[in-house]
Give the backbone structure.
Amino acid sequence: MTNSSSSTLSAIKNLYNNKCIQRSSLPHELINYLLTLESITFKNDSVCGNFSDNMKLLENDTLLKSIGFQLIKYFYSIDSTMSYVKKVVDNYSRAIIFSEVQTKGRGRAGRIWLSPPGGIWLSILWQVERKELLEILSLAVGVAVVNALKKLLLIDFKLKWPNDIMFLAKKIGGILIENMFKDDKVLSIIGIGLNVNNKMKFSGLQGVISLSEILGFNMPRNVILKAIALEVARILEKTSAEDIINLWRRMNLTIGRKIAVKINHLVVEGTVLDISPRGKLVIEDSKGKVWEISYGDVKYLEGIEYKRFSPHGTFR
Ligand code: BTN
């Protein structure tokens, strides 16, 4: 899964701990990317980390302002960043809201989303100009988050349809999209939850993990949040729908697998053939019938993991 060697990972760890390290111990692309994110400085032959985990500081961040966010707001505690954005949806076309803690974090299909200190709990309000992206918005945001993590850590995270962010069989983050239609405008509220420095081991949830549990060290969250915002903007402004689908295909864990997908009370079992150009999951069941599914919860029946549906209808 990891594309970087252990010596590169150790250099990355030191850099994110705000140490100065030899330039030659890091790939150029990483240095260039961190320069774009205004997070490093140079001293002779060394590059020095200038990272922070204090998300309140992002309210004045120049990069976030340059993306066009008219409102950048941090809360220590809020019920849900999604609910807050809904309240301000009439006033802005781009806003970004994040909180240290959510008391009523919401997941897909009405589930609760645990949001303790240490994670990234974020909602982006984005007026979608390119209507061709509407159907594949959640896949596009998944691609953006995986891109951001890859650029910062040189690790290939994966996507489980529609948009769970995975490390092997474990989920590290999820995406919730709620669209609002006003006159001829579409305002999308993009919720992103990423387990970063919070510990999931004792959460009581199966199949989940945090970034710090994978890496063995804590990450400064500000740089992750900035990278996610930048990649979301790049994808939604510049990447064609066809390229998004192809990127998703390259990052996915789902195509070719035997799965069960739960759509409300219906469970369809079959092999995933592909995703359609409109982001639907294409499955062939044991009778040869082909289904195109636009929403639902996927469970792998072989390979990475297999757990039965829980009595509550959740997979977490
Ligand atoms: C999922 O179920 O996988 C989606 C989880 C989305 C969680 C995020 S955290 C920030 C935003 N606020 C919420 O209440 N939910 C989303």
Observations:
- Residues 255-316 form a domain with the SH3 type barrels. fold (CATH 2.30.30.100).
- The mean pLDDT is 92.
- Residues 80-82, 102, 105-108, 111, 113, 115, 121-123, 164, 174-176, 191-193 surround biotin (CB under 6 Å).
